[in-house]
Amino acid sequence: MAENVTPRVRAPREASAGEVVSVRTLISHPMESGMRRDGDGNTIPRSIINRFVCTFNGETVVDVTMEPSIATNPYFQFEAKVMESGTFNFTWYDDDGSVYEDSSDITVS
Amino acid sequence: MTHKTKLATAALAALSLSVSSLALWADEDADLVVNGEIEMVVRTDAPAHLDGALSTIYSGWVFRSDETQAMQMDDFDNPAMLFAEQGQELFNTAMGANGESCASCHSNPEDLNRVRATYPQWDEEHGTVQTVEMQVQECQTESMGMAEAWGINSQEMLNMTAYIASIGRGQVIDVAIDGPAQDTWEAGREIYYTRFGQLELSCASCHEQNYGNYIRADHLSQGQINGFPTYRLKNARLNGTHNRFRGCIRDTRAETFAIGSDEFVALELYVASRGNGLTVEGPSVRN
């Protein structure tokens, strides 16, 4: 079970219709690859965030499949064109079954 | 000219070309504003005690590449802030026999905003110069009833000092070098100018006489410690001041002083005083 997992999101609160906004996300996570061994030679079990999804008003913005060897604390920055006010929902899926969520509202004028 | 020396000359020319293009990476005239609100002093007149040695002091930030500089300009991009956040959690976590957290006494963490800017400082009660780490240890063993305080270079301590530094970001550093701290300060200055190791290098050899130049691929800074603890891209973790001192002295091929030793406390006081006038940047991002 990964500890100290905290999702963070930075997205603008306001935009004009049709504007392309930049969204940044970060989740603190050790991203243990499953390839390492501990001091006694035992394999340290894999524990990574394996999927990240961002939706806007239910519509998919990005859906990312993540593999081992992605560095600790995965950071994603992407752009989205917003036509109407709404909510970005962010979801991270952990190997251990945990699901982490965050959201960010945006007002479009 | 033999064929071999011609090749060597060509290689040398290529090397100097790449060195000069490296130099373009660092924007030495840039100003540092963190989160668009905390204005840092990254260059200013040197404190009076450096008369004849340096005229201007520079934060290590100005010597780093554009990309590294940018990482420190926004907390979201600064990987060190994750550790500072963990430090904040520790600050509010009860530890020790008395069931107290740091916040039990320091209910308003903002009151600690001058800590990073004024340490190391003389501690009257103990009759010694104390670093921030030693102060935390004192709180833990003498007030909070912990049998064993955190190690100076432990992850918890680094997280805590990163948090304490982050509270004081933008504060102008003003470390006292006179009064009871003067003896320690002079001992630190002695170490700073003493050549160590097989390479016979003193701190001053690189950081006073050659800052701005390259030592192989490294762009030498003035070795200011206003950004500590600092997140280094080379090891992707927080690095404390003493650990950095140890790395430098090791690189001179010398036996180093121990982390937390009197020598390093004295050196930390002296080096901190060389940055009087700069602002607290910790936790910063460096290469």
Helix content of chain B: 25-40%
Shape of chain A: elongated
Low-confidence parts of chain A lasting 5 or more residues at pLDDT below 50?
none
Residues in β-strands, percent of chain B: 5-15%
Structural class of chain B: alpha+beta
Low-confidence stretches of chain B: 1-24
Give the SSE string of chain A: EEEEEEEE
| Main sheet characteristics of chain A | 5 strands, mixed
Globally, the shape of chain B reads globular
Tell how many strands the DSSP assignment of chain A holds: 8
**Which value, in Å, is the CA radius of gyration of chain A?**
16 Å
Largest sheet of chain B: 3 strands, mixed
The total count of helices of chain A amounts to: 0
- For the biggest β-sheet of chain B, the strand order reads 10-9-11
Task: Tell me what the structure shows.
The complex is a heterodimer of chains A (109) and B (287). With 109 residues, chain A is mainly β. Chain A contains no helices and 8 strands. In chain A, 0% of the residues lie in helices and 54% in strands. In chain A, the strands form 2 sheets. In chain A, strands 2-8-7-4-5 form a 5-stranded mixed beta sheet, with no helix packed on it. Chain A has a 3-stranded antiparallel beta sheet with strand order 1-3-6, with no helix packed on it. The termini of chain A are far apart. Chain B is an alpha+beta fold. Chain B has a 3-stranded mixed beta sheet. A two-stranded antiparallel sheet of chain B has the order 1-2. In chain B, a hairpin with a 3-residue loop joins strand 1 and strand 2 (38-39).
Short description:
The complex is a heterodimer of chains A (109) and B (287). Chain A is an all-beta fold and 109 residues long.
Structure characteristics:
heterodimer; A: 109 residues; mainly beta; five-stranded mixed beta sheet; three-stranded antiparallel beta sheet; 0% helix; 54% strand; elongated; B: 287 residues; alpha+beta; three-stranded mixed beta sheet; two-stranded antiparallel ribbon; 11 helices; disordered N terminus
